[in-house]
Amino acid sequence: MSAIQPLNLIVDIASGRLEPATTVVTRRLSDMRGMYADAAAEAALIERDDSVVYKVFQYDVPEETGQLFVCTTVLEPGRVGDEYFMTKGHYHRVRDRAEVYYGLRGEGQVVLMTEDGRCSSVELRPGAVAYVPPCYAHRTVNTGTGELVFLAVYPGDAGHDYESIERSGFSARVLEYNGSPTLVEQEPSGGSR
Ligand code: M6P
Ligand code: ZN
């Protein structure tokens, strides 16, 4: 195993930044084309200003068993049609690697899906820990009016499998329904991305 020195990481809750961060990922709507249910609303928003949906601030460690990645995510508030802004979502490339999210600011949900397509969701708000068990795909959704900021910790060898999600999507989406966030099952054929 590679040696890594003990260190402090500081989360600035106001900005959601992790310091130090060795990688910062910025995802705009155009980086997630085809992921929202309402394709016309998605295209119109990309055309208008292609806004930033979320940023990830990560402290990189060797991608090895025994190491832990630490990162924060700042997910902007907003909607594409009735669907709240969300992360792309992924399985871990090494499927049986779990993950923990800790809510720092704002409100949202983590949508979890088994490999046979069963979806559920757990809450994310300040103080809430969301446990992502091994083998579950996971995606975060901002259901509030301000930024959603959370800390994530996951194994160094987990990796990200985005391709499975790009291919078949999640079988449920969080939509605003009668003014409240609601986990809505999608038809098995079509529109699942
Ligand atoms: C969390 C962690 C990261 C992930 C990020 C954004 O911070 O799970 O590993 O990168 O959310 O999610 P995604 O990679 O699915 O876009
Ligand atoms: Zn993950």
Verbal overview:
This protein is mainly β. The chain has a single domain (10-185), classed as Jelly Rolls. Helix content is 8%, strand content 42%. The chain has two helices and 15 strands. It has helices at residues 39-48, 163-168, and strands spanning 10-12, 17-19, 23-28, 52-59, 68-75, 79-80, 83-84, 99-105, 108-113, 119-124, 129-132, 137-142, 148-155, 172-177, 180-185. The strands form five sheets. It has a six-stranded antiparallel sheet with strand order 3-4-5-13-8-11, with no helix packed on it. A three-stranded antiparallel sheet has the order 10-9-12, with no helix packed on it. A two-stranded antiparallel sheet has the order 1-2.
Give a concise summary.
The chain is built from 2 helices and 15 strands.
Ranges with pLDDT <50 over ≥5 residues?
189-193
Strand order of the largest sheet: 3-4-5-13-8-11
Q: Summarize the amount of helix as a percent range.
A: under 10%
Structural Rg: 16 Å
Largest sheet: 6 strands, antiparallel
Shape category: globular
* Total count of strands: 15
Based on secondary structure, the structural category is mainly beta
Identify the bound ligands: 6-O-phosphono-alpha-D-mannopyranose, zinc ion
What is the CATH third-level topology name? Jelly Rolls
CATH superfamily: Jelly Rolls
User: Which CATH architecture is right?
Assistant: Sandwich
How much is the average pLDDT?
Answer: 95
